[in-house]
Specification:
Elements: H1 8-38, H2 45-50, H3 63-67, H4 69-80, E1 87-88, E2 93-94, E3 99-100, H5 101-111, H6 117-120, H7 124-138, H8 140-145, H9 148-161, H10 165-175
Antiparallel strand pairs: 1-2, 2-3
C-alpha cells in the first residue's frame, strides 16, 4: 500500500513562493538599474581612456592642425610616396610619415594617449595627430604661426636635429619645392575602432 506524501502541498507551495520571490526581486533590480542603463555612454570606455576629448567632438580638428594639413600632405609624399606601410632607416622609421618610435612616444605622451606604435604607425589619421602633438610639444610657436620650414625640419631632425644641415636639406629639396595636395579626412564618427592600447 502506497502512502501519500503529506508534505507535498507544502513543498509545492514553498516552490511557488520561492519562484515568485525571484521574479519580484528581478523586477526590482531592473527597475532600480533602468536609469543607470539609460545613462550609460554610447561609446566604448576605451575612448575616454585612449582618446583625448578633441577626438570625441563632432569637429575634432583644431584650426592650427587643419592649417598644417597641406604641409603634412607634402611630408607624406616625400617620406613614403603615400605608402601607409613604408619602412625606412633600417626598420626604424615606419608608416606614411616615417615616424620613429621615440617620436611617437613623445607625441602620445604629450597628447595624453596610449597608442601602440607597432599597431597604429601605419594609420595616416593617427599619424597626423602624432605629428601635431609632437610639434605642439617641441615647437609650439611654429604651429601657432604655421612656420612650415621649422615644422618640416623638426619632423625630419627631431627636437634637437631640426637645426642641422640634414634637416635644412630635407626642407629645401624635398618639402619646399613640392606642390601640396589636399588630405582626405577620414570619418571620425567611430575613431576607437581597432585601437590597441599598450
Amino acid at each position: 500500500m502506497k502512502h501519500k506524501n503529506s508534505n507535498a502541498p507544502a513543498i509545492r507551495c514553498g516552490l511557488y513562493f520561492s519562484f515568485t520571490a525571484v521574479l519580484v526581486l528581478a523586477g526590482i533590480y531592473l527597475a532600480l538599474h533602468k536609469d543607470t542603463q539609460a545613462k550609460s555612454p554610447a561609446i566604448p570606455e576605451i575612448v575616454a581612456h585612449v582618446y583625448p576629448k578633441a577626438l570625441q567632438d563632432d569637429s575634432p580638428y583644431p584650426s592650427d592642425m587643419k592649417a598644417m594639413f597641406p604641409l603634412m600632405a607634402a611630408i607624406r609624399q616625400a617620406e613614403s610616396s603615400d605608402n601607409d606601410y613604408a619602412v625606412g632607416d633600417g626598420g626604424n622609421s615606419k608608416g606614411p610619415y616615417q615616424i620613429q618610435r621615440a617620436y611617437w612616444q613623445d607625441a602620445c605622451e604629450y597628447g595624453g594617449v596610449k597608442w601602440d606604435y607597432d599597431t597604429h604607425v601605419n594609420s595616416s589619421e593617427l599619424c597626423r595627430w602624432v605629428i601635431y602633438w609632437y610639434m605642439q610639444r617641441y615647437c609650439p610657436e611654429a604651429v601657432k604661426n604655421l612656420d612650415e620650414e621649422r615644422i618640416a625640419r623638426t619632423h625630419n631632425g627631431g627636437c634637437v636635429g631640426w637645426s642641422g644641415d640634414k634637416a635644412e636639406e630635407y626642407w629645401l629639396e624635398k618639402i619646399k619645392p613640392k606642390p601640396t595636395k589636399p588630405i582626405a579626412i577620414t570619418d571620425m564618427a567611430t575613431p576607437w575602432e581597432g585601437l590597441i592600447v599598450e
